[in-house]
Amino acid sequence: MTPEENNETTETLGQNLIGNGVSRRTFLKFCSTVASAMALPPTAATAMAETLSKATRQSVIWLSFQECTGCTESITRSHKPTLESLIFDFVSLDYHHTLQAASGDAAEHAREEAQKAHKGKYILIVDGAIPVKDDGVYSTIAGITNLQMLKDVAADAAAIVSVGSCAAFGGLPKADPNPTGAVAVSDIIKDKPIINIPGCPPIPVVMTGVLAHVLTFGIPELDSHGRPVAFFGESIHDRCYRRPFYDRGLFAKAFDDEGARKGWCLFEVGCKGPTTHNACATVKWNNGTSFPIQSGHGCIGCSEPDFWDAGSFYKALSTGSMNPGEWATDALLAGAAVGVASGILNKASKSKAEKNHKPVTLEDMGGKNE
Amino acid sequence: MSNRVVVDPITRIEGHLRIEAETDADGNIVGASSAGTMVRGIETILKGRDPRDAWAFAQRICGVCTLVHGIASVRSVENALNYPIPANAQLIRNLMIGAQYVHDHVMHFYHLHALDWVDVVSALNADPKQTSELAQSISKWPKSSPGYFADVKKKLKGFVESGQLGIFSNGYWGHPAYKLPPEANLMAVAHYLEALSWQRDVVQIHTIFGGKNPHPNFVVGGAPSPISIDMASNGGSGTTALNILSLSQIQDIINRMMTFVNDVYIPDTLAIASFYKDWFKKGSGVRNFMTFGDMPEKGMDDPSSYFIPGGAILDRNLNEIHPIDLNDPNQVQEFISHSYYDYSVGKDQGLHPYDGETNLNYSGPKPPYDFLDIENSYSWLKSPRWKGQPMEVGPLARVLTLYATGHEPTVELAGAVLKQLDVPIDALFSTLGRTAARTLETKLIGDQMNIWLNNLIGNIKAGDLSVHNDAMFDPSTWPKEARGVGFMEAPRGALAHWIVIKDQKIDNYQAVVPSTWNAGPRDTQGQDGPYEAALTDNHQLHDPKQPVEILRTIHSYDPCIACAVHVTDPEGEELVKVKVV
Amino acid sequence: MNEVELLNWARGPGLAYATVIMVFGLTIRVIEILSLGRPKELAKVRSSGTGDGLKLVVKRSLPEPRNWRFITASYIFHIGLLVVIFFFIPHTQFFRDVFGVFWGGWPNYIIDFFTVLSIAAMMYTLVQRRIDPSRRILTTVSDYVAWLVTFIPFVTGYMAFHRLGPDYTLMLALHILSVELLMIALPLTKLTHAVTFAISRYYTGSSMGRRGIKA
After folding, report:
1. CA-based nearest residue in chain A for residue C39
2. Are the Cβ atoms of A324 and C19 closer than 8 angstroms?
3. I want to staple B235 with a disulfide (CB 3.0 to 4.6 A). Which of A213, A263, B105, C104 is the partner?
4. Is the predicted pLDDT of residue B232 greater than 70, yes or no?
5. To the nearest whole number, what is the mean pLDDT of chain C?
6. Interface residue of A140, A141, A166, A246 to substitute, partner B, most B CBs within 10 Å
7. Does B234 score more than 50 pLDDT?
């Protein structure tokens, strides 16, 4: 079947859903779940349902570069909407290494066909950073560098979604000293709308929720880092259930001390919640089971740019990340050396001045000024 | 005529793998090269950092086996510092490792491996009533009514007829290598979907202990999640994730998880395997197997308390288990003769990981390229060897070790399975043997989780709430120099991280991961790595354009890297790249 | 540079540079002062001067009855400064990291109280400097700079803690940067008195004492 034929026989999503035994009620439920997750007005659910049921399933191409597959694993954990409902009812996931049946050339053809058939319309999802050092030899797929593949596929995409901190900000591969010259998608592609969904990995429902929003209403409101405000607008600290302990000055001083067992604030054991923007404290993880702070470990700040290079995960946010104590010791020694040296110089010049100085006598003063 | 068949990307794996296979005129694979095509340099990035932070970096080596590098990393620091951890932390780690195994193996079977054996399109011809009869004949799993399978079929039909096949696009549907009847295919498709939903439940064990999944949190010196049972005082029960409620939730999850394993995963493995018995005679790979051992009842320094013993089996001799010393500079070594790296001691020398180096030096063809230069360097993976030997690691190695050491439940379970499939014990040395071993150990380890949970609850009842040893957490208490190795049995096989600590910072860090053992390229002696050896064992490609045979064997190892398979020409004639039009 | 990079810079290299300049500068200052020695007494020495020196260190730290409003304000912000720097819990974490010593922090509401009070007191002293003609004449540009670099950390810290301003990460970065500015200004302006006040008072007290003059 050629891509063109493919297109002609394609049903609308509405037909498809009925064909798949998805009732209108179930469908509306899905839409209202998404709407509430994104804090949209209740009327949005109906509008979303209208838009979605008219559409052909949206073609999605998912490119994996310097990644660990954690983002893909995470999206399989999404409860509402589930990955199954997303990829079987709402989008057509035409290329995705971890899930697709085809391998090798057959897989590459699936990508090329989708690029052709849905030119200018498909959504490109990227996980993983892109190495650009040495012409990008550090990561290739089918003999093509990630850099080249990203440029090729991005050229005809309607929009790009960078999932995970690697695609959004460069992430772990970019951490100092960045051995492969890894960069974020937005460092390479400048002429397409890009949504960043950072996190290492991102929260499952944040990924599916944002995708559903893109499918229905287009690009959501983004912050200065390209993150959807609905999920990244507030800091972990501001929404943390342990915040009252912070305000009262009650802190766990160590893992498993009395404060830790009482669920006190983890600031002193290194929590980066105050400077981290994500929905962990509200949406939580894995069907609302828990989130890092609830399970006793401070937030490591994984949805912020360059969090890998922001100092130890176990030192409080208010400490220096480069060991100021060591610098101070060196400066003290250097200062002492210079101070002593200048003191000696001062003394030397003083005694020299004294030596050269002829004492003033009465004779000098009175003078033989006859 | 001879061909080089290139499979890149190998999909349904973790990472970037390329395989180049060389076939003779009849399509038999006579040589294969396995190549990792992506590198990040994580070991280089780790240098100079706080050793307590290392787990988070190392964990991001892989998001599928999302906890294993975290565990190996904290263990390496603890080993270097002689840093004991509380018994409860050990049990919590065991429970997390157990959950990882069950989750990983089931997902591998249904979502990464099944489509090599299951023809999704053929399922459209299934009769729901007969499918129901088939399902009920092999299991008491309740989702087996004709109506249920009719619904699944309807959903699948609607999906296929929409013309948008999504993840099923361009699959090798209709390939004669697919042998299952339509009813078995439909049943498998139903379970593919059920397993996607099942796994969301299982990972909650990680979420309770580690706050999230993928990438739960760990801490050097124990576990980060304190046990809160204190109702009265400030905070109180429920203010942290680990309390009476969540412990009973974990018990429920284990029960549900194992019901699926017993009633769906095991019967499906046996049912599918019974149609593919010829695959018990292919893909045997190297003849050596290795485990490092894991899941201690007492502590990592007491190997006698490990649930999975460590040891090496050479030349399939199950009568002798060789002890392994990870600190011995002459045992584990990594070679780079065919890898894109340089060593300061030259390209032909092996280095023990304590002295390991990660100097990237790409010397492959300039992209875009058609073929790798397999005579020289062709992979970002190194070639780890034990006493110079290539070793297979993973479920098969573990089941063999348990079997060889006379672990009773293993001997019983393996015996029953082999009997039901009517194949000899030697059948385990094969593509399907590897897949069956994975299923076996899922049950063995999953069942053991009940014991660990009971021990944890017993300790708590006895008043032991400790999960973290704070005595050495402050780096100022550490010696000026220290080094250690943290090892574990990851779902994909033996894993170890070697760390050298100097002035409270990481001076060197090397991880030798299971897929490096299995997927690494040839060594200085020209010995094939396990993938390469397995592909040359009795593999005839029916159609080089649809190399499902290659996928079956590669997937049987559950790769954790992206590689590519090339078929190369033994006579050195001009290579013909196989194109799928 | 975005706010995250700014914060990372402030907590890392920025802090390191500021520490070096401050410690290096102050050390030179102190050693230079000590090595200056004292001029030869031309008059007859009346006492060793040690007691007089120590006395003055204490005496000049005590309030004097003249212009009590101004002096109270000065006291308030000096005490506030010490309390906020050394007893706000995040700050104690900083000192614990640097010196390995932890002396316990105070609850946030106490810190908040001192912060507000200090800000008010500092503004009062500034107004006084402007409206009192003699003070206005005596005040140099350097004094205003000293006032400003002391004042800004209070304000940025207060804003960051209360989530005022555009964004917490940015406010925290600005707070740390403003403290770094203060650290740099310490050896370069009369803020050096933070470490040299005792030396200079002792010096004055003891030399007066040796000459038998009451200081």
Report:
1. A350
2. yes
3. A263
4. no
5. 86
6. A140
7. no
Q: Is the pLDDT of residue B135 over 80?
A: yes
Is C16 within 8 Å of A327 when comparing Cβ atoms?
yes
Q: Determine if the peptide bond prior to A228 is cis (ω within 30°).
A: no
CB B208 within 8 A of CB B238: no
Q: Specify whether domain A57-231 bears CATH 2.60.40.10.
A: no
Give which of B409, B225, B390, B200 is closest to B313, Cα–Cα: B390
Confidence of residue A325 (pLDDT cuts 50, 70, 90): confident
Separation CA A285–CA A298 (nearest Å) = 15
Q: Note the ipTM here.
A: 0.91
Domains A57-231 and A236-333 fall in the same CATH topology: no
Q: Which two tokens stand for residue B404?
A: 């060889």
From the number of C-beta atoms within 10 Å of its C-beta (0-12, 13-18, 19+), residue A72 rates as buried
- pLDDT > 70: what percent of chain B? 94
Residues in chain C: 215
Phi, psi of B386 (to 5 degrees): -110, 120
Buried/exposed A32-59: b ≥16 CB within 10 Å, e otherwise: bbbbebbebeeebbeebbeebbebbbbb
Burial of B526 (0-12, 13-18, 19+ CB in 10 A): exposed
Average confidence score pLDDT of chain A: 85
Domain boundaries, chain A: 57-231, 236-333
Q: Determine the pLDDT at residue B351.
A: 93
- How many CB atoms are located within 10 Å of the residue B572 CB? 9
pLDDT the model gives residue B576: 42
Q: How far apart are CA C63 and CA B376, in angstroms?
A: 83
What's the CA gap between B17 and B562, in Å, rounded? 3
Determine the distance in angstroms separating the CA of C171 from the nearest CA of chain A, rounded to an integer.
10
Give the residue from chain A lying closest to C177, CA to CA.
A320
The b/e string for B156-181 (b: 16+ C-beta within 10 A; e otherwise) is: bebbbebbbbbbbbbbbbeeebbebb
Query: What does the alpha-carbon distance between residue B447 and residue B385 come to, in Å, rounded to a whole number?
Result: 33
User: What is the number of other CB atoms lying within 10 angstroms of the CB of residue A188?
Assistant: 15
Is B322 a known active-site residue?
A: no
Nearest-CA neighbor of B49 among A179, A309, C212, A84? A309
CA distances for A366 relative to A357, A358, B76, B482, angstroms:
19, 16, 88, 80
DSSP assignments along C31-78, one per residue: HHHHHH--PPP-SPP-S-SHHHHHHHHHHTTS--STTHHHHHHHHHHH
**Interface contact flag, A294 B240, Cβ < 8 Å:** yes
Lookup: tokens for B365: 């063809």
Greater confidence (B439 vs A1) lies with B439
| CA atoms of A203 and C80, how far apart (whole Å) | 43
Strands (E), A137-250: 140-141, 144-145, 159-163, 182-183, 194-197
**What is the average per-residue pLDDT within A20-39?**
64
Pairing relation of β-strands B332-335 and B311-313?
A: unpaired
How much is the average pLDDT of B55-75? 93
Domains of chain C listed by start with CATH number: 3-36+65-210 (1.20.950.20)
| A350: nearest CA partner in chain C | C36
What pLDDT, on the 0 to 100 scale, is given for residue B122? 95
- Tell me the sheet residues that pair with B227: B242
Give the number of other CB atoms < 10 A from CB of residue A23: 10
Give the side-chain half-sphere CA count within 13 A for A75: 25
B175 is an active site residue: no
Q: Among candidates B313, B383, B374, B402, which has minimal Cα distance to B343?
A: B383
Q: Band of the pLDDT at C71, cuts 50, 70, 90?
A: confident
Residues 6 or more apart in contact with residue B35 via CB below 8 angstroms: B17, B18, B19, B20, B372, B378, B379, B380, B381, B521, B563, B564, B566
CATH class, A236-333 region: few secondary structures
